[in-house]
Amino acid sequence: MAGHDILDIVKKRNPHEPEFLQAAEEVIASILPVLEKNPQYGKLKILERMLEPERLITFRVTWLDDKGEVQVNRGYRVQMNSAIGPYKGGLRFHPSVNASVLKFLAFEQVFKNALTGIPMGGGKGGSDFDPKGKTENEIMKFCQAFMVELSKHIGHRLDVPAGDIGVGGREIGYMFGAYKKLRNEFTGVLTGKGIGWGGSLIRTEATGYGLIYFAENMLQEKKDTIKGKTCLVSGSGNVAQYSMEKIIQLGGKVVSASDSSGFIYDEAGITQERLEFLKELKNVRRGRIKEYADKFKGVVFTTDDPKADHNPLWNIKADCAFPCATQNEINEKDAKNLVKNGIKVLGEGANMPTTIEGINVLIDAGVMYSPGKASNAGGVATSGLEMTQNYMGSNWTREEVDAKLVGIMKEIHATCLSAAKEYGKPGNYMVGANIAGFLKVAKAMQAQGVI
Ligand code: NDP
Ligand code: 2IT
């Protein structure tokens, strides 16, 4: 079946799901040469099957807020593909969550997890619940109500959720507590748990650290390094914070951070001390990024303009850019601005932060561009290491986990490069990631028959 035929089927089956169709379109285009070379995958409709979730669960979440009023939210779990292992992927709590967003994330997760080399299938879930402005008690009540239903569909050998936007250590704690109470078992059913009750050292840092390890691998291809490079980072949550930390440790300079209200430009560079302020602002006080500009002299805050055709954050001159907030934060115009200013590396920390048009601009200009499914895979890979430690019943040291993370990111980088080269697109990390991820899952699906 030709690529446009598959895309047509997916479009007909999933009308009104722009994010899912965007992720599908990017992958289908990359996989066509693989289908030509391996006609059995076309005959077995492997790609078509991969584009249909094995199971999509939606459920009502009802809870009482602090005023005693009844609140109703929608919960989801997309169990996308279990060919190579139990479903694995994060939970997102954000008002923008819907089936399209979670299906795109679950689809990307299948490829990402395959690239890690750890046996994990792909899934994603979450809710349209908005954690902003909620009290600690309300967050706990919601997490417990969400788990009352989710607990029926997950398990440490079946489906192991973790965090994503709006879900960090606090929420994982409340959900783990609820699961344990409901099921009367202490198992590694969630990852991102606290140290001392089943969590892994370095999991908190892993996505951001892994992203920068991957960028170092890309730069090494050109006998270059991140040391001395000026870097743009967007977002100020988990992935952004630890990307910044690793850039600083490796001698790079981070000049930006953002949240959904706007961005700050710190021309002098965000130091470790200033990063500690940012972590406290975002993780403890849960404040807005503008406070960073109010606190430190010489820092400029720019308010987000949703009507603008580009984001001025991506028009700051820099060597490297690391989008770490959310999907579609870099469009064609943003990509052109980055290229105009001489960007060398764009490493995606977020999932699908660059539009297809934006990616084309970057690749055509020869920018070293890494897709999220490769460069942010350190998070889920370390979740896989957490699962292994839970199964073993013992823990690795910080140094041991970090060394494994470094090795996994190096391996993913090499895998992407070799698949891209084999299919005539040397240096194209997007094509390489899509092909390598696809082949691993396709082989397993073929072996397991038409089910
Ligand atoms: P957090 O909730 O910790 O942080 C998210 C950050 O992005 C916040 O600064 C938030 O701003 C901003 N943001 C979220 N949604 C929007 C939006 N619609 N518009 C503008 N800004 C927004 O999430 P993470 O750091 O965990 O996740 C960031 C990205 O990384 C996501 O794409 C996620 O899927 C991806 N990712 C996460 C992994 C993980 O291990 N956590 C692993 C791999 C990928 P505000 O505070 O204003 O909401
Ligand atoms: O997008 C992702 O890879 C994550 N949010 C992490 C998933 C996980 O299971 O650790």
What would the keywords be for this entry?
451 residues; alpha/beta; Rossmann fold; five-stranded mixed beta sheet; five-stranded parallel beta sheet; 17 helices; 13 strands; 49% helix; binds NADPH dihydro-nicotinamide-adenine-dinucleotide phosphate; binds (2Z)-2-iminopentanedioic acid
Q: What portion of residues is helical?
A: 40-55%
User: What is the CATH class of the domain at 206-366?
Assistant: Alpha Beta
The CATH homologous superfamily of the domain at 206-366 is termed NAD(P)-binding Rossmann-like Domain
Number of strands: 13
Form type: globular
CATH topology assignment of the domain at 206-366: Rossmann fold
Biggest β-sheet description:
5 strands, mixed
Short note summarizing the structure:
Helices cover 49% and strands 15% of the residues. It is built from 17 helices and 13 strands.
Question: How does this structure look, described?
Answer:
This protein is an alpha/beta fold and 451 residues long. It is 49% helix and 15% strand. Helix 1 packs antiparallel against helix 2, helix 5 (99-116) crosses helix 15 and helix 16 (398-422) crosses helix 17. Among the domains are: 53-183, Leucine Dehydrogenase, chain A, domain 1 (Rossmann fold); 206-366, 3-Layer(aba) Sandwich (Rossmann fold), CATH 3.40.50. The two termini are 20 Å apart. The longest helix has 25 residues, at 398-422. The protein has a 5-stranded mixed beta sheet, with helices on both faces. The model has no long low-confidence stretch (mean pLDDT 98). The chain has 17 helices and 13 strands.
